[in-house]
Amino acid sequence: MGFTRLNQTTNLPIVDWKEVHQQSHINFSAKQISQIFCQDIKIALSFFSSQ
Fold first, then answer.
1. How confident is the model at residue 1 (pLDDT cuts 50, 70, 90)?
2. Which domain holds residue 45?
3. Predicted confidence band at 51 (pLDDT cuts at 50, 70, 90)?
4. Number of folded domains in the chain?
């Protein structure tokens, strides 16, 4: 949750924990959680498609 981009060296996701923490306190709705997961999945899929 909260992937912002992939590390260019290790190709591991870089997580913005500050954003995750803020969003969990501001809006912990199912819609918000699904949007965060959707963003994470898009980044993960872009990693696998670039391999």
1. low
2. 3-49
3. low
4. 1
